[in-house]
TrEMBL record, chains A, B:
Domain Phosphoribosyltransferase: 107-253
Pfam families: Pribosyltran, PuR_N
Subunit text: Homodimer.
UniProt entry tagged with the keyword Nucleotide-binding: no
Lineage of producing organism: Bacteria, Bacillati, Bacillota, Bacilli, Bacillales
Domain Bacterial purine repressor N-terminal: 4-73
Stored SUPFAM superfamilies: PRTase-like, Winged helix' DNA-binding domain
Keyword terms: DNA-binding, Transcription, Transcription regulation
Record carries keyword Transmembrane helix: no
Record protein name field: Pur operon repressor
PANTHER family: HYPOXANTHINE/GUANINE PHOSPHORIBOSYLTRANSFERASE, PUR OPERON REPRESSOR
Record organism: Sporosarcina ureae
Domain of life (superkingdom): Bacteria
Family: Belongs to the purine/pyrimidine phosphoribosyltransferase family. PurR subfamily.
Length: 280, 280
């Protein structure tokens, strides 16, 4: 079957969006659409421009025999701001306040469209960091990890608090939870990581960073490398943060349980430096 | 700015793929691209045909003043078969066999591209079932639930084994785990569901269906309705299954631990009846 240009454009868009960070050869497209490579190149030119204009991402051309095209999901600065502020507006609602100054976020972590946007925003900050794996701790971090993973096209591994028979042999470490200073355990299936992998740690909430510190210890056990740390919400506190470099979307400044007030500000997404990636 | 047809096609494709099961008015597109509604209609005609030819899904037109277009992700029969058989090929690998006859599936549940395909396959079977919410149990079901949820555009809620402070007030029930016949507890945040919602239950693995039965009891507590049950793998067993109607992608017939053999067959996706949806 011979495809028209208009049909090719629709189908190529779908194919690229479904396969981020994946090298696709011009031959693949040229065979799929029974079209000359020169026509495919022109099509890709149109896609490239439209993707950039709509802040969808970049199409990177890799030349040579093993070359092709790669779609890199990237969100523009405007939209990142919008996502951060819609997160703040949601979190500011006073009925989210739970005893102990905790915030109810479970509904947000169950919303697929919201997660997709959050995931793309975080993936934008790490698009060139050669992340191999995203690691999180059960349970709340899992949807965030997967939302990022889809845009970086890397697997997710989940650290648990307890060992389960369906995980096979595991490696377990003890760590000190940051704020409560309790000794806790983390367990990871032995076959879930290979040594030398570069790992992005993520979670929904970070206070002192004890959980992150625990995951870092696990990385050492597996001879893996820290590729970055990203959280939705970091909380203000007096102690020193255990993790040096992390990315946060929102900062929880203070919680006033009596007057049911939640004080939030932008996280360090734009201020932590070394991150001019959104100026596409 | 005035968009060319070619640019509109690329951007509309992206917009629709990112917003499945969402009604989008022609006015939205016509404003976004500064184009006449007649041009937009022609564009949508091209998208519609291409989506159907590439087994991406259906574009449904809703006419009238409150009308517009809706993208329904649907996978064709061929691709469903392919997804099921690639799952079987993966699961058949003997190094997945764990003591007690369990299968290691954690790597698959961490693979974003695989999950996306699985999610779309399951969403295809429930596209017209008016599902409001997808419910699963922590931990392994979470990525599957989210993969389905994105294609149905509905939220995910996660049932836990233990209550956590960050969940707020919870409802808890006891149930009998199917195979081990132990009494277990399930906990769900009170504000996670509204009464009257239609719920799709999902999990990675089902034997007798005790966990599903537990979730069904939770639905009753919340005055919610069962919209369906979907699992990746069902296991052969002697007792009667506690759930009447469920969908499975793969059936685990038998495990021979001594010879390290895993016997699999297709699940009931195509045979359970009432499901001719993939004949688009």
């Amino acid at each position: 079957m011979k495809w028209k240009r208009s049909e090719r454009l629709v189908d190529m868009t779908r194919h690229l969006l479904e396969n981020p960070h994946t090298l696709i050869s011009l031959t693949f497209f040229s065979n799929r659409y029974s079209a000359a490579k020169s026509s495919i190149s022109e099509d890709l030119g149109i896609l490239k421009e439209t993707f950039e204009e709509s802040s969808t991402g970049r199409l990177v051309t890799i030349s040579g025999a093993a070359g092709g095209i790669k779609y890199i999901p990237l969100v523009g600065r405007e939209e990142i701001k919008e996502v951060i502020h819609s997160l703040m507006n949601e979190l500011r609602k006073s009925d989210r306040l739970l005893p102990g100054g905790y915030l109810y976020m479970t509904d947000l972590l169950g919303n697929p469209r919201f997660l997709d946007r959050i995931g793309k925003v975080i993936a934008t900050a790490f698009f060139d960091k050669e992340i191999d794996v995203i690691m999180t701790v059960a349970t709340k971090g899992i949807p965030i990890a997967h939302a990022i993973a889809r845009h970086l096209n890397v697997p997710v591994i989940v650290v648990r608090r307890d060992s389960k028979v369906t995980e096979g042999p595991t490696v377990s470490i003890n760590y000190v939870s940051g704020s409560a200073r309790r000794i806790q355990t983390m367990v990871l299936s032995k076959r879930s990581m290979q040594s030398g992998q570069k790992v992005l740690l993520t979670d929904d909430f970070m206070k002192v960073g004890g959980t992150m510190q625990g995951m870092k210890s696990l990385l050492e056990e597996f001879n893996c490398e820290l590729g970055g740390v990203a959280v939705l919400v970091e909380a203000e506190h007096l102690e020193e943060v255990l993790v040096d470099d992390y990315l946060s979307l929102v900062k929880l400044r203070a919680v006033d349980e009596k007057h049911r007030k939640i004080e939030l500000e932008e996280g360090n997404y734009f201020t932590r430096g070394g991150n001019e990636l959104w100026n596409m």
